[in-house]
Amino acid sequence: MRWHRTSCRRKHSDSRPRCKASPWAQRATVWWKDDASTRARFSSGLARASAYRPPCRGGYAELTPWDRFTVGVGAGLAFWGPAGGGYIRVRPIVWGGEGRRLLNAFVLQAAYTVMRDGEFDLPCIDSCREVHYLDRTAQVGALSAGFEHQLASGWHIRYDFGFGRALFATAWRCARYVDRMPAPCEGSPPNDDLPVASFAIGHTL
Q: How far is 46 from 200, CA to CA, in rounded Å?
């Protein structure tokens, strides 16, 4: 089975329409209809640079035991402190990769990250709060979808977008701005739901 757009036409000698798949659809394959022997394969990679979700920066290493499946780990530094975790990624749709052509894939990814979390303290001029939320440790789960591209030279680029949620986290605590002494919290705490956007550049081993 292929997911694609078709164009049909009816011949004079036959009342049944004959359908022809578009050139893109002839190259794109879903995982249960793929013959990887005719194209390049996605390989295990070691990153040069990556980003989990703004404003986290770091590096990652991943292993691809099967062309359609990858597992990886990563570590980096967020705005509030260190972050690290793991992820799994599947490629249900792959196209290209013949000869020295660009290899492409639509990807789905699930990630788990332990990180320092907090609120953004923006500079204020008037009506500044006297109390702010302190940073906490959170375990964040995220689901995202995007695209991955691999060059014949071994370099690959990946970008995906989705949503994450703090699955487990220490309780929020507050302190005064002036002397950092503990104080009752004011207002709503930072949201446990957050958008996820990642961009990674790496090279195969």
A: 11
- CA–CA separation, 1 vs 21, rounded Å? 12
| Distance separating alpha carbons of residues 83 and 88, to the nearest angstrom | 17
CA–CA gap between residue 119 and residue 64 (Å, rounded)? 36
Reported as a pLDDT band with limits 50, 70 and 90, residue 110 is very high
**Residue 113: both structure tokens together:** 């990250």
Question: How many CA atoms does the CB half-sphere of 91 hold within 13 Å?
Answer: 26
Maximum CA extent, the chain = 89
Exposed/middle/buried for 51, CB within 10 Å: 0-12, 13-18, 19+? middle
Res 124: pLDDT: 61
Q: What pLDDT was estimated at residue 19?
A: 53
Query: Contact at 8 Å (CB) between 54 and 197?
Result: yes
Distance CA 182, CA 138 (A): 20
CA atoms of 148 and 107, how far apart (whole Å): 7
Of the candidate ranges 43-47, 71-75, 119-123, 129-133, the one whose mean pLDDT is the lowest? 43-47
Q: What is this structure's pTM?
A: 0.70
Segment 104-132 mean pLDDT = 81
From the list 57, 62, 47, the residue with the least C-alpha distance to 77 is 57
Do 115 and 83 meet the contact criterion of CB atoms below 8 Å apart?
A: yes
